[in-house]
Structure formats: C-alpha cells, structure tokens
Write a structure and sequence with these properties.
mainly alpha, 3 helices
Length: about 50
C-alpha cells in the first residue's frame, strides 16, 4: 500500500460522505486520473475496497 492509498483509506474511514470516484481520488491526492484508477483497482484486488 502506498502513501496515497493509506491517506485516502483514513479519510474514508473517518469523515467521507458520498461515493468515491476516480476524479475525487485524483483531486484529493493531487495525482492523475490514471494513477487514481490504478490505486483504486489495487485496493479492490486486495479486498480493501469494494466496487458498487
């Protein structure tokens, strides 16, 4: 798990409302949409996030 993923998971567990999208992830971590998608897919594969 990289630092972006750890940071967002902490936010998701504390005070995040709504759906997490690639665009929101990219904005919150200041990375590209492609990087955000890779981060999200990695967490889904590890079972830490679930697609709805």
């Amino acid at each position: 798990m990289n630092t972006r993923q750890a940071r967002i998971l902490n936010i998701l567990l504390t005070d995040f409302y709504g759906k997490l999208t690639t665009k929101k992830w990219a904005t919150m971590t200041k990375c590209s949409a492609d990087t955000a998608l890779r981060d999200i897919n990695d967490l889904v594969e590890k079972g830490m996030l679930r697609k709805v």
